[in-house]
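User: Could you check the structure of this?
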Amino acid sequence: IEDVYEPYLLQEGLIERTPRGRLATRWAYEHLKIKIPERLF
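Assistant: Sure, the predicted structure tokens are below.
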């Protein structure tokens, strides 16, 4: 999964790498039409 999906999701701007792991971006939430949790951003 890490070698196939992660590079694509990073390239599309849907996830970002953080010291604590991977995090969905605002664009990911908007694209999936999911309410953005206020405490994440």
